[in-house]
Design a protein that fits this description.
With 116 residues, the chain is of the alpha+beta class. Helix content is 15%, strand content 35%. It has a domain of 52 residues.
């Protein structure tokens, strides 16, 4: 049996209650971090059981959850080591998640050269 629990206050959903749900995701890269939440207009079981689903017992809990989520500064990945294995055509990147404390002042770009 599945139990749906409010992601803000922790109350458990009863079968007769109408709840709000959506899908939340955070994408963290080496240059940027992005958060997004999609609130569904109606309760749909197939979306409510998704791994990234979020559940709220009321509009106030949803609003408080979103306010706290978007108030926090997103983290960025700081690359520590890159290992390339040409034989296996793979690379392993070791990185740590760190809070973003300052804005990016300089961006590096690479130019592609055309082979003739």
């Amino acid at each position: 049996m599945l139990q749906f629990v409010c992601d803000y206050c922790g109350s458990v959903k009863e079968t007769y209650e109408n709840w709000i749900h959506g899908v939340a995701a955070e994408n963290i890269g080496t240059q940027a971090a992005r958060r997004e939440v999609i609130i569904d207009p109606a309760w749909r079981y197939e979306r409510a059981v998704l791994p990234l689903a979020v559940h709220f017992c009321c509009r106030q809990c949803k609003d408080r959850y979103l306010a706290e989520l978007f108030r926090r500064v997103p983290a960025v990945l700081e690359v520590e080591k890159v290992t390339v294995d040409p034989a296996a055509e793979s690379r392993v990147i070791v990185a740590k998640k760190k809070p973003a404390t300052e804005t990016v002042k300089r961006r590096t770009t690479t130019k592609r050269t055309r082979r003739r």
